[in-house]
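Postdoc handover notes: sequence design on the structure in folder B. Input tokens:
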């Protein structure tokens, strides 16, 4: 025997309203129960994580944020010793990978992954392939916040510019359920994307240590590009983590010939390089407006 009950419009609306409010309430409770925040840095080479984002990685790891790193290359061309002692691309890549993993442990990273491109050639990578690899990592890890280089690569480095372009595209593609060919992981929407930037004070501090930053390319020489203070959306206080950052930098033994001068810099330059880190909020789905942020997770906690 079957019974049929004919609902009127009012009863139907009440039921759907109940279902809707239950779903919203359930999602809210789920968000409140899930306190684990995740930060992913997507960078070009070993030592970018320490020299570039070491302050935020150390800071947020100490606060209980889960931190992750995706690196495009193994820095195979980063040799500063005598030419005759250069171990070659493969061997130097292995050395620098070990150094990076040691630095990552010092900074409290959960995980390090490589995209397996060759240093100095990443800007020539197949775009679809590179973006797809990054999408896979974003979907698997599900970070709330992603950090990468700005569109200028800080000082025009082609690999830095490429990782900015590919990481930015991957953040968009990762949220697209129809984006093809990246394994079994579900789509994931990143809440905030940041570009690492310099103002004039930070640029001057780095150039006091390393000399004028000039990148020679096929289209000429490129130099550091600074951002005006009004365009910088986010300033993170990282002064308390200077010693840990320096410990991470020191893990890159193959590069230390070029880093020793950092120890002798005036205190003013140390504060400009390590006391705070500057970012441009490329997009956010959780906050906005003209107020300068002091937390990459503003709007998320």
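Designed sequence:
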């Amino acid at each position: 025997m079957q019974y049929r009950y004919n609902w009127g419009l009012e009863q139907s609306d009440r039921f759907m309203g109940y279902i809707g409010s239950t779903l919203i309430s359930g999602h809210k409770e789920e968000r409140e129960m899930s306190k684990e925040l995740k930060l992913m840095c997507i960078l070009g080479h070993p030592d970018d994580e320490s020299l570039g984002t070491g302050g935020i990685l150390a800071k947020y790891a100490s606060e209980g944020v889960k931190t992750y790193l995706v690196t495009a290359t193994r820095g195979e061309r980063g040799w500063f010793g005598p030419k005759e002692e250069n171990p070659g691309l493969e061997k130097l890549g292995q050395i620098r990978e070990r150094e990076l993993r040691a630095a990552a442990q010092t900074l409290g990273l959960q995980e390090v992954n490589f995209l397996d491109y060759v240093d100095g050639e990443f800007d020539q990578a197949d775009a679809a392939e590179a973006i797809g690899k990054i999408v896979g990592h974003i979907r698997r890890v599900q970070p709330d916040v992603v950090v990468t280089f700005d569109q200028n690569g800080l000082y025009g480095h082609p690999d830095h510019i490429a990782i900015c372009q590919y990481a930015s595209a991957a953040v968009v593609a990762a949220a697209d359920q129809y984006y093809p060919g990246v394994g079994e992981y579900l789509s994931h929407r990143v809440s905030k994307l940041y570009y690492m930037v310099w103002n004039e004070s930070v640029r001057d501090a780095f150039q006091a240590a390393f000399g004028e930053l000039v990148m020679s390319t096929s289209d000429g020489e490129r130099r550091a590009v600074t951002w005006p203070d009004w365009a910088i959306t986010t300033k993170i206080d990282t002064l308390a983590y200077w010693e840990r950052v320096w410990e991470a930098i020191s893990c890159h033994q193959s590069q230390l010939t070029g880093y020793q001068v950092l120890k002798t810099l005036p205190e003013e330059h140390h504060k400009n390089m390590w006391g705070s880190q500057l970012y441009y909020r490329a997009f956010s789905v959780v906050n906005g407006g003209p107020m300068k942020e002091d937390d990459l997770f503003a709007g998320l906690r």
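Context for whoever picks this up: Residues 1-33 have pLDDT under 50 and may be disordered. Don't rerun without checking with the PI first.
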